[in-house]
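INFO  loader      accepted 1 record
INFO  loader      residues=321
INFO  predictor   begin
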Amino acid sequence: MISLQQFTIKKETEGNNTATFSVGPLPHGYGHTLGTFLRRVLLSSIPGTSITGVKIDGVEHEYSALEGVSDDVLALLLSLKNVVLVSKSLNPTTVELTVNGKAGEVVEVTAGDIEESNEVSVVNKDYVITKLTGKTKLNIVLTVERGLGYVLPNEDVRKEVSTLPLDANFSPVTLVNYAVSQTRVGKETELDQLDITIETNGAVTPEEALHVAADNLNQMTSHLIEISTSMLKGDEVTVAVQNEIKKAASESKTSEDETPVRVADLNLSTRLTNALLKSNYDDLRKLTGLTEEEVASIRGMGSKSYQELLDVLKKYNVKLV
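INFO  predictor   done
INFO  writer      dumping tokens
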């Protein structure tokens, strides 16, 4: 069985606030396991920023209408929920939006009209919030907070005169999809390849979201290990064997020189060089962890080539199983 720590992560594609990451090779079944874990954490546990309170000059409740504004207050509040902000403050803070209309003209009110501060910045500045259709002044004070997941409106903010509460979706991750396909390493053919696509609202990058999700999972599993360790009696055979396997793998990894050993630079025989390169073993260290039978069965490998390869592997401290 392939090691749980042998997989790599590569960014395969990238678009507008979207990226697809390829994770593998993974032991059979772990593609869906890791994909499900990451998807749930990405959608629920990445901190973000949202507007939680709105105070509009001349408005006492959300069922009002403003002269010279194309949308009623309720529609205006819904539109404000689409503004993407980034706050560096752990405490609630306020920012202002002030726009003056012009007689006989239609003036667009965009997210870029929000006055930024040292703590709060606007991501989607081109987003149109509403339009002014007359010579009127729109002045709004926005309460901005950081948080996790979805939060219902805090009705306590109504205690402040004319302040309207907003429900908030703090998550900057808008979509996560994953797919699992089959891959192989040597003779191990039933391995998993996980492709996970992450889309954000621009407040964070997909790479940042993936890192935070992985860190959250690491904290949880580390705590789980500590708790389960305290439950052990000290004579569990399975745990002891698992620890020995981990120790051996760690010692083997520590003793290895991580510098790539390029097959093309080793001056090997033509037959051995062609056999390795045609099987995608361009780096000698890619053979680490394979069995002697797997190496001997590499397409194009003869008995003399096999013996030559064993000598080279020993020279560069590349260990087979």
